[in-house]
Amino acid sequence: MSTTAALHSEWIKIRATRSVLGSLLAVLGVTVGLTVVACAAFGEAESDNADFDPLFTVFYGLNFGQIAALAYGTTAVSGEYHGGAIRVSLAAVPRRRVFYAAKLLAVGGPALAVGLVTGLAGFLAGGAFLGGTRVGLGDPGAVRAVVGSGIYLALMALLAAGLTMLLRSGVAVLSLLIPFLLIVSFVVGDLATGAARFLPDRAGQLVLHTSPDGGLDPWAGLAVTACWAAAAVLAGWWRLERDDA
């Protein structure tokens, strides 16, 4: 099977699997919905805070939307290990590098597209509820944050996809990543600021701030997240090449 045919096959799998497609759509719904709630509830009240960053506030929902991105990347791969589906996939696409590349493109492409739409929608919707502190696309860092948020969500989906290929268990990956992002990252951030800036979520979300601090510029932080995703993808590739289906 050619690379184009393999990619088309993987896209059909995503469209045909409700849990995968639902997770992808949840990225948009969760991020925008919680951003609006947060901006409406806290935006005006926090405007007097010296540390208040209206740009970062309109991406508040991304903290939870990224969980949906992880679920999307995980379920897109874990389905291959239910009922021996991976054997059928590899019988149709014997060249494992072609199969894996098609899988990653089918995961990363839609994640990037939905991520960019999510970033723009969250920015506009959240900004409408900030009152006098609202931000616009012409403000410093706004376009960078919108584009960066889409790239960040796609990288998180690829991180989950690579780890799922490595561990061959969606439950194991989500049990590892969700507590890490929601708990461990904040604890490490409080105890060791220097180390925390290199965690995938802390580094990647620097692109959402007007004036990031911590020693990394916005795009360098996103590059750190890309390195985490690349490491996971390579680990998944190693497992796919090394073990039998």
Structural commentary:
There is one protein chain. By secondary structure, the protein is mainly alpha-helical. The chain is 76% helix and 0% strand. The chain contains eleven helices and no strands. Helix 4 (62-78) runs parallel beside helix 7 (142-167), helix 6 (96-127) runs antiparallel to helix 11 (218-242) and helix 7 packs across helix 8 (170-191). The longest helix has 32 residues, at 96-127. The chain is elongated, with a radius of gyration of 19 Å. The model has no long low-confidence stretch (mean pLDDT 87).
Task: Label this structure with key terms.
11 helices, 245 residues, mainly alpha
Topology:
Layout: H1 3-16, H2 18-46, H3 54-57, H4 62-78, H5 85-92, H6 96-127, H7 142-167, H8 170-191, H9 193-196, H10 200-204, H11 218-242
Helix pairs in contact: 1-6, 2-4, 2-6, 4-6, 4-7, 4-8, 6-7, 6-11, 7-8, 7-11
Termini separation: 18 Å
Biggest sheet layout: none
Let me know the average pLDDT.
Answer: 87
Separate helix tally: 11
> What is the structural class?
mainly alpha
Unreliable stretches covering 5 or more consecutive residues: none
What fraction of the residues are assigned to beta strands by DSSP? under 5%
Number of separate strands? 0
From the spread of the alpha carbons, the general shape counts as elongated
Helix content: over 70%
SSE pattern: HHHHHHHHHHH
What Rg, in angstroms, do the CA atoms define?
19 Å
